[in-house]
Specification:
The complex is a heterodimer of chains A (286) and B (194). With 286 residues, chain A is α/β, with parallel strands linked by helices. Chain A is built from 13 helices and eight strands. Chain A folds into two domains: 117 residues, Glutathione S-transferase Yfyf (Class Pi), Chain A, domain 2 (Up-down Bundle), CATH 1.20.1050; 153 residues, Rossmann fold. Chain B is built from eleven helices and no strands. Chain B is globular and about 50 Å long. Classes of the chains: A alpha/beta (286), B mainly alpha (194). At the A-B interface, helix 2, helix 3, helix 5 and helix 10 of A face helix 6, helix 7, helix 8, helix 9 and helix 10 of B.
Chain lengths: 286, 194
């Protein structure tokens, strides 16, 4: 089950709703790179915070059903949303390290776990699975002049024993990709600070403060926008920031790949709460 | 909060000891290793809004303050970002520990001090149980009805709806039987808290 030009794909619930532009841009960009995605059959919700906060066993079993479905495809599994990725990796870790729990999960989900299934974040596939030569070759419109703050948030890189991805305190994957596309990633100190999305509906006042700290710091570092890889982060950072004093658009990294690849005819920007068209036009990128 | 004794193990007896043992068994974390370096609290985004900081929660478990811990706001305000667990010099996964404490609090019928969060979790879990995936629109309606908080975020919700990000009709996955079966077997109680 080695990496190649074909991967299993777990879109996650937000791909049909709040992060629809992440799903659309992911598919468009990978197609442009000649990478095929095979959506896993009849996938279900990873459970997210609601489930791991209240029922550990259920939080391991719901992702395990997706692992069971992915095993049928016999391909590496790619997950764009950092939140879903984290839940799938948590379940995978327990399946790999705790034989008693594994038996219980296998019995509840009614499957046999195979350790050779690789579960990887989309950004990991893009940076480490598809060669940079291929990406740079595809760039038609280098993102020259755009200063981006790469925001990794929490779920992509932590806990590192679970995610096993990049450097947890100062990750580089998004920065390296953005530089390869011609953009200028800024150095800043809030790239892995949590945006608090889990509390957005119940404690909006707290989350507004967390979001403005993150976006404010990106602004102070000279960034014109943020780039992320999580459906919850993107929505939270755009919706809860002070639009009057900050107003920084938040891109999915796949959207900026699409801009650099010169992909036409997308309606991703209309889906944003902060429309990035003005910024792109000002930089002659649209 | 009552005054704790100076030692790590509570002198007042069995009850306190059994709490730390129960927490350790359920979480798999060695709570006794904590020497209060405060790294967890220093990196915690929601600590300023908690009634007890994360390091205090760990100490309170060592002291056996079961009710105070399981009825704290802190365990619910934790956003599981794992800055704490990643940085802990003693490898205590405090994020996972918070999950254990929340689950214990619900299982044992403690009063959740952050009712809204528990209500939201329940609405989310029910949404998955109904369709296999979360359906935001019906989940939000359920949360709003159960919490009585009708107006917050209404404008944002309408904005997202206008952008086609809130599909109105819920869809079900095919394997609903397996989802129901997973819920039935994994859920010890049908309706916890909230």
């Amino acid at each position: 089950m080695e990496g190649g030009d074909k991967y299993s794909y777990f879109p996650g619930c937000t791909s049909h709703s709040t992060a629809v532009e992440y799903d659309l841009s992911t598919k468009a960009v990978l197609k442009a790179l000649g990478v095929e995605l095979v959506e896993i059959e009849d996938w279900n919700c990873c459970g997210a915070a609601a489930v791991h906060s209240t029922n550990k066993l259920l939080s391991l079993c719901l992702p395990a059903r997706n692992i069971a479905m992915a095993q049928k495809n016999d391909l590496e599994l790619v997950v764009p949303c950092a939140g879903c990725f984290n839940m799938l990796k948590r379940s995978e870790r327990v399946l790999k390290t705790d034989p008693d729990a594994r038996r219980e999960i296998e019995s509840i989900v009614d499957f046999t776990y195979r350790e050779d299934l690789k579960i990887r974040a989309l950004i990991d596939i893009v940076v480490n699975g598809i060669s940079f030569d291929r990406i740079e070759e595809r760039v038609q419109k280098p993102l020259t002049g755009i200063k981006v703050a790469c925001y990794y948030g929490c779920a992509l890189v932590r806990h590192p024993k679970v995610t096993q991805l990049d450097e947890p305190e100062n990750p580089q994957y998004l920065d390296t990709l953005m530089a390869a596309l011609g953009a200028t990633p800024v150095d800043w100190s809030f790239k892995t600070d949590c945006c608090g999305a889990d509390l957005a509906l119940t404690h909006g006042d707290v989350v507004v403060k967390l979001v403005n700290k993150v976006v404010g710091m990106a602004h102070e570092a000279g960034a014109q926008c943020l780039v992320c890889s999580c459906g919850l982060c993107q929505m939270n950072l755009e919706m809860r920031q002070d639009i009057n004093t900050l107003g920084l658009p938040v891109f999915y990294f796949t959207e900026l790949m699409g801009v650099a690849f010169g992909l036409k005819g997308n309606n991703w920007w209309a889906k944003h709460v902060i429309n990035p068209s003005t910024l792109l036009v000002s930089l002659n990128l649209r | 909060m009552r005054e704790p004794s100076m030692g790590i193990e509570p002198s007042e007896g069995k009850k306190g000891r059994s709490f730390i043992e129960e927490v350790q068994e359920r979480s798999g974390e060695n709570i006794r290793l904590c020497y209060q370096c405060l790294k967890c609290t220093a990196g915690c985004p929601t600590a300023p809004y908690m009634d007890f900081n994360p390091n205090a929660i760990v100490r309170m478990i060592q002291w056996g303050l079961k009710q105070e811990v399981l009825e704290s706001k802190a365990i619910w305000l934790c956003v599981s970002c794992e800055a704490c667990g990643t940085r802990c010099p003693n490898d205590i996964d405090i994020g996972l520990l918070m999950d254990t404490l929340r689950e214990m609090s619900l299982d044992e019928g403690y009063q959740a001090r952050e009712k809204g969060i528990v209500t939201l979790h329940n609405a989310f879990m029910e949404s998955i149980r109904r369709g296999g995936r979360v359906h935001e629109a019906t989940m939000m309606v359920e949360y709003k009805l159960r919490s009585g908080d009708y107006w917050t975020d209404l404008v944002s919700g309408v904005k997202l709806f206008m952008k086609g990000k809130f599909p109105l009709l819920p869809r079900r996955i095919k394997g609903m039987n397996s989802i129901r079966e997973i819920y039935r077997k994994a859920q010890k109680k049908v309706d916890k808290g909230g």
